[in-house]
Write a structure and sequence with these properties.
Helices cover 22% and strands 25% of the residues. With 245 residues, the protein is of the alpha+beta class.
Length: 245
Amino acid sequence: MCTSAKSTQGLSSNDPSMIDVKKVIGDSFQVLVDGTANSGNYYQAWPFLSYITNNPDNYSGLGKTVLLDMIRKYSLGSNETPLHTLSRFLSGVTIQKVVGRYWAHMAYVDIGHPKAQALFVSQKSTINYANLDNNGNGKYTVKSARAPRYMGANIIPLKASSSSISVTITASSTSYTATLAVKGSSGVRYVDVVNGKASVTLVSGEETTLVVANTPALVQYDPFSIPSDLNRGLTYSVQITGATV
């Protein structure tokens, strides 16, 4: 956002992104903003702010002024979370959908931030994607330690064995948002999982990733003292045809 202004002042814009993909993607199962000492993500969680600012999905209420709008519309003295504030001026989309789609975009760091995406591409092979246990016959179950917590997600790259891929999710709660992110030469397309099911047909050169986000009703919480129920992950299994994990 500041590139043109920096150029005008003779300042370099060539510095690499500060995104920590190993944390924000490798530990995406954590609460969206987790301030737990020595294991939290609160310094690394800023790509969510990039997503809602760049607004690649063109959701009403998001965009270049969204952070200023959140400050202006915060309910003074309420101690509400930023997600509560943000939810009040969204139009035509829920905060749960926004969070779920953010995580879908993070499958390929498709958040309108080219430098962050470039760093992701260079480090993708080092990211921990070990979210599921293989039960055989195309069925997988989320690892209990990596089950997605409050507004967290699992990002699960798939290895296609067919041009047609389908998934069926069975979860302990219906409060989740799942998406198939399909990356091709011209960009990324997103297919919603509806009623636990979704399918895609790949064209040559495309790859796909399943993203499962835990998106319940909003709650107040202190990110530096997260209650146990928010750290209780979404339990689910998924049947996959046409691909493996």
